[in-house]
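Subject: Protein record for review, amino acid sequence with backbone structure tokens
How to read it: Take the token row as a discrete description of the fold.
Enclosed: The protein record, placed directly beneath this head.
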Amino acid sequence: DASVSEADVILRDGRVVHLRALLPADEKELLEAFERMSEDARYMRFMRSVREPNVQRLREALNSFPEGGSGIVATVPAEDGSDIVGSAVFFIEDPTTCEFAITVQSNFGGAGLASTLLTALIDAARKRGLATMEGFVLAANEPMLRLARRIGFSVAPDPNDRAIRICRLDLASV
């Protein structure tokens, strides 16, 4: 995906991650990353209790890129080559709007990885000519809501669900 820049990034705690485009070949590593997620982290990401990954939905999402959206992964070296420790994706909702989602492995929380991924995702969406990025975040997910506000997203209650906040960013304004 030409809208995603590849780079090594040094996080706040000194660890280095490699950012690159998410590829269909990443399916196995994404499933392994899902297995490493805590139950709480899965709940925050999927907004419900999820015990098993939906492999068919994952394949459909991966195969929709780059036409239907874009994704970025953060990897670190591992015995089997590399491990995905964070991912950020957006799916194009209409010609001008995309919906984002971010996942960060818990032992990388607080190191600036979510911010790094979201900033790179915003850049990729802007390169694609999209005007608005939005995401649906649990009201209880304070770290994600703080990050969204810091980057410039507006945060408003979902009129259909009091437990969810809608984060929206005008991509031309950042």
Observations:
- Helices lie at 27-36, 39-46, 55-64, 113-127, 142-151.
- The chain has five helices and eight strands.
